[in-house]
Amino acid sequence: MEVQACAKLNLTLDVLGKRPDGYHDLRMIMQSIDLSDRLTLEENGGAGLRVRTNLHFLPNNEKNLAAQAALRYWEARGLPSRGLNITIDKHIPVCAGMAGGSSDAAAVLRALNAVEREPLSPVRLAEVGERVGSDVPYCVLGGTALAEGRGEILTPLPPLPQCWVALCKPEFSISTPALFARIDSVRLRCRPDTQGALAALEAGDLAGVARRMYNVFEDALPDHRRTRVNDVKNLLIQSGALGASMSGTGPTVFGLFDSEECARQARERLLDLGGEVFLARTV
Asked: Which of 14, 37, 104, 135 is catalytic?
């Protein structure tokens, strides 16, 4: 079976505080885009669980989230592990704040469930995904959703009006654990207007959502990284973006456009800044 794994964006991301279990309570609006990986799952006659990708530095064993998802699925069904080859054609950048690994894991869960004629409901499948990673439940369901808790408490939302997205992942990566550690000690300059964004979604107001986008992790970035992120955001706004923000713990920055032409022009301008540049649409 071949299956698509869509990247996600955080239209808003707020950290509400640290929990007794060491995790943080989050509140964020998530959105799928058509920038995606392609996965092929193929039985291999009992030769074990194998992962192959077009990126040599990614794990090819059970440390890969896609492999973990297969194990958790069989475990949830009370089935023994099977011989399975998982081939991942990566297009979502790695360590970019777009849930590339989590979306691959979710795609494996959906594929295995489809092969078995869907014995698990989407909600139950998302619960299985929670055992793989905090973003996996959202990636199982996709679309537009409010995510709370560690990201596993999901409320489906009215879809974001379809639009174009220009994205840039700068030429550095961000340590998610380090950024979570910093968020507890920095003074947040502002927070996203999540309630306003929810109301704008209800009204089908794309510009209203875009104006309210913000990610508090931008305030936790080291100064030189924050400057780079702000440079990308400013370029996107100057190119006609309705709004721009960083996704997840970064460093990918994206802008929403209601015009394909403006989005394509923004993508061309982003190429001058370096890093990886993409053009996508919302799903």
From this structure: 135
